[in-house]
Amino acid sequence: MKRAKVVETDDINKNGEDEKHPNFLIPKLCSWMYDLKWATGTGGGMSVKHGDFIYMAPSGVQKEMIKPGEIFKCNASGEVLENPASLKLTECAPLFMNAYSIRNAGAVLHSHSKDAVLASLIFKGKEFRISHQEMLKGIKKGSSNEPHKYIDTLIVPIVENVLYEKDLTRRMKKAMELYPESNAVLVRRHGVYIWGKNWQQAKTQAECYHYLFKLAVKLKQLGIEPDQAPAGENGIA
Fold this sequence. Notes:
L-fuculose-1-phosphate Aldolase, ten-stranded mixed sheet, Salvage_MtnB_euk, methionine biosynthesis, amino-acid biosynthesis, Aldolase_II/adducin_N_sf, lyase
């Protein structure tokens, strides 16, 4: 195996990259996730594909303080090509690769948000389900360009957590194969993986999924099943 190139973390703009390059995008997106409390305590992660290469955030660092020179560069198989000095590749790497290899994703993120964790707990089985909500329209059906409709039931598979993140790889792969229309996999008592055809779509869908997770929890608190069809609401029609 070819040895990965070690990159000094303060060599920020070594290749004259612009701000749309993943070396700059990933720190911004990780900071955005931190501000939303999706990546606190060094948890969570982000990866973006650019050309033939895949870029990933490091593990065990303050996600709101990542620098452009601290991003790992991998090939299409996930092999590290550029290794920032003194940093460790994210533990999410094999799970990110699931999204790239199975769904041909362009970006994928891992969130530790409380809303995702609670959503995984209010549904005891293998599925999170919610229907008749306008925000469903912001989520595509699998790898297609077809958005969910207001009347559709959005289903997100739930896998059980394990001691080590990398050991979730097989469970996530199985969930993705069983639910081809889902662009997310919930991990019970842990968080969620969400992907899209590019970073913009992954970000948009993540915002919509998290909105729906939080809403579903509130609906359950009010005694309303999140996937039930409207009945007896009697508004103007």
